[in-house]
Amino acid sequence: MFKQPKVRLGNKNYSQDELKNIRKENNKFYNNSVRTNRFNNQFTEFYHSTEWKKLRQQVLLRDNYMCQICLRNGVVNDKELIVHHITELKEDWSQRLNMDNLETVCVTCHNRIHKAK
Fold it and tell me: What are 19-36's pLDDT values in tens digits?
């Protein structure tokens, strides 16, 4: 009979089923505290709107599906792209659909931008 291997997490060993339950609880906590809290509902609704999805495609086309930061540094990168708000939504909600406030960036550059803030 096959015995499920234990997985070490921190200083404890867990079975696959126990680990699955821990992940489920963590996801529940993350969803309640980050994704669907009362402050982020407005942002979540916006990012799911048709208006945003259409504008996002226009920005990707305008930027030729390339990371603009990498391009400024002489690197052509068309992998893992995000349409980034230069002025964040929480700073100025009125700029959310302004194409001049949007640019295509890769995940790496996007993380660098937000780490610097």
Answer: 888 888 887 776 666 566
